[in-house]
């Protein structure tokens, strides 16, 4: 299958899942995760009408953005972020999905150079493994309050990755609950970033507004993926 055919097939599945859930497919943003693929793939996707791409490493994001200078796509940073990379991430990403601790929020805020607010999401960890990215579920509201206190960050919602060893719909139900609690503090924070190649239909069912889909569209990742 060509890239174009894979993209259309996924978009059809997204639309079908949305309709089954009684949702408008138009309210769902499909982010194509291009990590480990060359910048030329982002250009091809853009030619096919893709407006939103996802990357999980700062250096790769910076390199691709430079290689594709001025290409009109939104860059979503979805990876675990080191505090010392915050300035580069802020410069090169349009949205940061992975704000999972106060220190990172502070570093992103301090890196503001132009007064344009940065869109961010609070990432929550749906597993018991504290080594995984994301704030503990019980800390999400405190982190939300902290992000709201930083005027250069605009909180858009919550993000999570479903655990491998659990039914995704159960994990996404917990995410939805956190999303509700965050929205009670920040009514404008309506985004739910969830759903990957293996579980995006369950995520749509649970209210996801932003899907992060990689390999089903791009094909397998070269190495490291
Ligand atoms: C790689 C990645 C994805 C996409 O994964 P696929 O299974 O290839 O769709 C989504 N979210 C995050 C955080 C990722 O790192």
From TrEMBL:
Pfam families: Ala_racemase_N (PF01168). The keyword Ligase does not apply. Pyridoxal 5'-phosphate (PLP)-binding protein, which is involved in PLP homeostasis. Transmembrane segments: none annotated. Belongs to the pyridoxal phosphate-binding protein YggS/PROSC family. This is Pyridoxal phosphate homeostasis protein. It comes from Microbacterium commune. It comes from the Bacteria. Gene3D superfamilies: Alanine racemase. The modification N6-(pyridoxal phosphate)lysine is found at residue 35.
């Amino acid at each position: 299958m060509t890239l174009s055919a894979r993209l259309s097939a996924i978009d059809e599945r997204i639309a079908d899942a949305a309709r089954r859930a009684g949702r408008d497919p138009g309210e769902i943003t499909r982010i194509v995760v291009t990590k480990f693929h060359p910048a030329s793939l982002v250009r091809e996707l853009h030619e096919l009408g893709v407006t939103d791409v996802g990357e999980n490493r700062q250096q790769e994001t910076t390199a691709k953005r430079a290689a594709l200078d001025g290409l009109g796509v939104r860059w979503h940073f979805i990876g675990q972020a080191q505090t010392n990379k915050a300035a580069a991430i802020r410069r090169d990403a349009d949205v940061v999905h992975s704000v999972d601790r106060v220190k990172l929020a502070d570093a992103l805020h301090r890196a503001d150079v132009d007064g344009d607010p940065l869109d961010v999401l609070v990432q929550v960890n749906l597993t018991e493994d504290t080594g995984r990215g994301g704030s503990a579920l019980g800390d999400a509201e405190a982190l939300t309050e902290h992000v709201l206190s930083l005027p250069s960050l605009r909180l858009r919602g919550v993000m999570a990755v479903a655990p491998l060893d659990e039914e995704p719909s159960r994990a996404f139900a917990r995410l939805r609950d956190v999303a509700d609690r965050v929205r009670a503090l920040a009514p404008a924070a309506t985004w739910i970033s969830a759903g990957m190649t293996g579980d995006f239909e369950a995520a749509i069912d649970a209210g996801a507004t932003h899907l992060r889909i990689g390999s089903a569209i791009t094909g397998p990742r070269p190495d490291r993926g």
